[in-house]
Design a protein that fits this description.
Shape: globular
CATH architecture of the largest domain: 3-Layer(aba) Sandwich
CATH topology of the largest domain: Aspartate Aminotransferase, domain 2
Strand order of the largest sheet: 1-7-6-5-4-2-3
CATH class of the largest domain: Alpha Beta
Cofactor: pyridoxal 5'-phosphate
Bound molecules: pyridoxal-5'-phosphate
Number of helices: 10
Keywords: Pyridoxal phosphate
Organism: Aegilops tauschii subsp. strangulata
GO cellular component, one term: chloroplast
Protein name: Cystathionine gamma-synthase
CATH superfamily of the largest domain: Type I PLP-dependent aspartate aminotransferase-like (Major domain)
Number of strands: 9
Largest sheet: 7 strands, mixed
Distance between the termini: 41 Å
């Protein structure tokens, strides 16, 4: 019923022949902790099922998930597009590290589809990376629309879906190529573990996995266990947070004091004009 925690760095082969069979693809086994772990593999399968992804790789943090994805899928000298709202450390990484590989960047406002089209028309864009909802302003991107725009120009679309969780949004089903999460937030849900993941088509995720196996931002199996345990209540926690946020937003919207309420999809919200329809649940985060 519970997934065992497999605390090992190396794996046993009972004979040289078994090792040869493993290396030549006739025997399935784990080999070394940086290349895979049964507890983490169970977590990856669960995440793939939630995101409707062919494959998922779990890593040591949400930041490392973005770094591994960008390092793998954006070639040296490439161009990326991203948005003004972005987790600050992701922005710092993009501004300080990507130029060292000759990667240039266009930054657009999340709702500015003309600016996105312009960036796609005038650069050889490898990837559009955006959060939706964004951190910290909870702006929403129309994933279906931007995925069509990107794919028409041969660019990949990666969504940081941390603020949505896979309960509120399944970006791959709307056309995104990759989804990254800081599992530290909703997915693990108990403030006791840091982790991140990248989900998508096997063809793309396996490239990230190869990079990850070399560079080594491995998630400890005990952390994998804590995230698996947290995920058992993910749907309940997110539904509860959605309905609390909605109640708060409705209360504050009617409040006589002048306050701005940002709740994606709330009828009178200033964000509504550039929100997409939700996938599964109607309401999510509220920010004052
Ligand atoms: C939207 C978003 N993406 C990525 C990260 C980075 O995740 P982690 O803290 O797990 O490295 C954060 C962290 O706050 C975040 O808010």
């Amino acid at each position: 019923i519970t997934t065992p925690v497999v605390n090992t760095s190396a794996y046993w082969f009972s004979s040289s022949q078994e090792l040869i069979d493993f290396k030549e693809g006739r025997h399935a086994s784990f080999e070394y902790g940086r290349y895979g772990n049964p507890t983490t593999e169970a977590l990856e399968k669960k995440m793939s099922a939630l995101e409707k992804a062919e494959s998922t790789v779990f890593v040591a943090s949400g930041m490392y998930a973005s770094v591994a994805m960008l390092s793998t899928l954006v070639p040296a000298g490439g161009h990326i597009v991203t948005t003004t709202d972005l987790y600050r450390k992701t922005r710092i990484y993009m501004e300080t590290e990507l130029p060292k590989r000759g990667i240039t960047m266009t930054v657009i406002r999340p709702a500015d589809m003309d600016a996105l089209q312009d960036a796609l028309d005038n650069n050889n864009v490898s990837l559009f990376f955006t959060e939706t909802p964004t951190n910290p302003f909870l702006r929403c991107i129309d994933i279906e629309l931007v995925s069509n725009m990107c794919h028409n120009k041969g660019a990949l679309l990666c969504i940081d879906s941390t603020f949505a969780s896979p309960i509120n949004q399944k970006a791959l089903t709307l056309g995104a190529d990759m989804v990254v999460h800081s599992a530290t937030k909703y997915i693990a849900g108990h403030n006791d573990v840091i982790g991140g993941c990248i989900s998508g088509r096997d063809e793309l995720v396996s490239k990230v996995r190869i990079y990850h196996h070399v560079v080594g931002g491995v998630l400890n199996p005990n952390a994998s266990y804590l995230i698996l345990r947290g995920m058992k209540t993910l749907h309940l926690r997110v539904q509860c947070q959605n309905s609390t946020a909605l109640r708060m937003a409705q209360f504050l919207e009617e409040h006589p004091k002048d306050c701005t309420c940002i709740l994606s999809w709330l009828a009178k919200s200033p964000r509504t004009s550039h929100c997409q329809e939700p996938n599964d649940w109607l309401w999510w985060c509220c920010q004052l």
